């Protein structure tokens, strides 16, 4: 007989309650991962039975999978020491002033409230494991657009949610996707009705302020036929000596003729492992664009993927990775899988490594036998600023159709003394000369960002180069 999981409350000891009261938390799981913890998270959220069953299946899949032996070293990530669910505030607000000052302040420092008013169609803000603020402007709500946190979508739109959740990234896809599926919390849910074109971006901002924490948001975007949407995610965390984990899952469905543009500006602190799974399904004549910037985290493993499922589907991936200190590893790239004829993919990857950092491009292009007349082009460029840094490229192509157009080019370069000397002879300082060369290198990427975010990336990059 199968033993039933223990559904005891997470706050199962007086010491835990005292700790939460002292830190101002509404709810905190004890450290480590178990079936009991998964049940407690689901119970605290008041979820339907099918979601708890889904979580437990994912947990078993996670436990059965071995830690990957390829890529960056993950040996210092101790999951037994992590908290997998932390609720800092008891409810979600639609007015910033209703959020406690200690939670509101980190977002105010990033100026996202002003950005929301000036240039966004809607904004969500997640603090630790839960979304604390969410708002969608009425003009888009009146057109039937749904933009809410993923937990709310599960309760308010159960049929729509269940139809698409886990269809792009299954619960047993990989070890960390399984982990996310078991303990996911927060994230964004977007549904854009047929023919609706959202002219301004939607955004969710993710913040971690606690040490030894795991953040596991789940994002699901459905763009119905001939619709369009742009979505921005921003990420930051406090810096601690103890390791934390960010392991998100993003699923995108772009139906016939739809367009989805997904921006990421990742600036996690160096103690964070950023291990995520992002994938999209593109249907007939649809377009998926990823614009992916990775400046922070100690270790990043991220490879946005698009499955071009029907004829005429297209994807473009622009990525920038910056490894600016010793022991920082940016292992990033992209995947495009051509399953139908006349599909197109373009991947442009830029990386910068300095002060002993390591940046790696890891790409995968697959063209199925029936994907006739498909086109794919990959360009990966690495720039090293010194002799102790490292840049690698691991491209892989699997082409089963002859009538295709496939191209790949890779280049790794280093700033040489002659370039710096020439610019300094024209009156620039050494620092300004180096910045000018870097800006020229990343300019094609910055052009893909909205103006205010391009300025933010430029600022983050300058800070990173200065340590």
Give average pLDDT, whole number: 90
What is the helix tally?
12
Please give the domain count.
2
Number of strands: 25
How would you describe this protein?
The protein is of the alpha/beta class and about 475 residues long. The protein folds into two domains: about 15-300, no CATH class; about 415-465, no CATH class. It is built from twelve helices and 25 strands. The protein has helices at about 15-25, 35-45, 50-65, 100-110, 110-120, 140, 150-155, 160-165, 175-185, 415-425, 430-445, 450-465, and strands at about 25-30, 85, 120-125, 130-135, 145-150, 190, 200-210, 215, 220-225, 230-235, 245, 250-255, 260-265, 270-275, 275-280, 285-295, 300, 305-310, 315-325, 330-340, 345-355, 360-365, 375-385, 390-400, 405-415. Strands 5, 6, 8, 9, 11, 12, 14, 15, 17, 18, 20, 22 and 24 form a 13-stranded mixed beta sheet that branches. It has a ten-stranded mixed beta sheet with strand order 4-3-7-10-13-16-19-21-23-25. The chain has a two-stranded antiparallel ribbon with strand order 1-2. β3 and β4 form a beta hairpin. α2 (about 35-45) packs antiparallel against α3 (about 50-65), α3 (about 50-65) packs antiparallel against α9 (about 175-185) and α7 (about 150-155) packs across α8. The longest helix is centred in the C-terminal third of the chain and has 17 residues, at about 430-445. The chain is globular and about 65 Å long. Mean pLDDT is about 90; it is low at about 1-20.
């Amino acid at each position: 007989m199968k033993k039933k999981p223990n559904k005891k409350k997470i706050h199962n000891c007086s010491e835990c309650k005292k700790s939460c009261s002292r830190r101002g938390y509404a709810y905190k799981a004890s450290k480590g991962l178990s079936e009991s913890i998964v049940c407690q998270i689901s119970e605290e959220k008041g979820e339907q039975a099918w979601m708890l069953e889904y979580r437990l299946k994912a947990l078993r899949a996670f436990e059965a999978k071995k830690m990957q032996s390829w890529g960056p070293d993950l040996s210092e990530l101790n999951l037994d020491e992590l908290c997998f669910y932390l609720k800092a505030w008891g409810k979600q607000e639609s007015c910033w002033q209703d959020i406690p000052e200690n939670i509101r302040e980190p977002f105010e420092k990033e100026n996202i409230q002003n950005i929301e008013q000036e240039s966004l169609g809607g904004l969500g803000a997640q603090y630790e494991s839960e979304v604390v603020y969410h708002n969608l402007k009425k003009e888009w709500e009146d057109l039937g657009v749904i933009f809410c946190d993923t937990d709310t979508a599960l309760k308010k739109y159960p049929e729509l949610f269940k139809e698409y959740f886990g269809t792009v990234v299954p619960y047993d896809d990989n070890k960390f996707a399984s982990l996310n599926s078991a303990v996911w919390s927060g994230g964004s849910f977007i549904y854009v009705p047929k023919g609706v074109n959202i002219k301004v971006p939607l955004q969710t901002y993710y913040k971690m302020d606690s040490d030894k924490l795991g953040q596991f948001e789940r994002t699901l975007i459905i763009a119905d036929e001939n619709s369009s949407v742009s979505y921005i995610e921003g990420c930051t965390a406090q810096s601690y000596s103890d390791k934390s984990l960010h392991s998100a899952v993003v699923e995108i469905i772009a139906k016939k003729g739809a367009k989805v543009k997904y921006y990421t500006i990742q600036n996690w602190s160096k103690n964070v492992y950023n291990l995520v799974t992002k994938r999209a399904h593109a249907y007939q004549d649809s377009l998926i664009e990823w614009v992916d910037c990775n400046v922070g985290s100690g270790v990043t493993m991220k490879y946005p993927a698009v499955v071009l499922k029907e004829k005429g589907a297209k994807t473009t991936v622009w990525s920038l990775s910056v490894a600016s200190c010793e022991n920082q590893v940016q292992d990033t790239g992209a995947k495009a899988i051509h399953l139908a004829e006349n599909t197109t993919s373009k991947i442009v990857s830029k990386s910068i490594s300095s002060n002993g950092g390591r940046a790696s491009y890891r790409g995968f292009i697959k063209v199925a036998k029936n994907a006739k007349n498909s086109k794919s082009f990959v360009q990966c460029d690495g720039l090293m600023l010194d002799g102790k840094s490292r840049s690698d490229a691991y491209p892989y192509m699997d082409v089963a159709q002859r009538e295709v157009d496939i191209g790949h080019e890779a280049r790794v370069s280093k700033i040489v003394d002659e370039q710096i000397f020439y610019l300094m002879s024209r009156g620039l300082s050494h620092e300004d000369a180096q910045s000018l060369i870097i800006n020229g290198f990343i300019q094609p990427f910055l052009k893909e960002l909205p103006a205010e975010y391009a300025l933010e990336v430029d600022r983050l990059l300058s800070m990173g180069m200065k340590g």
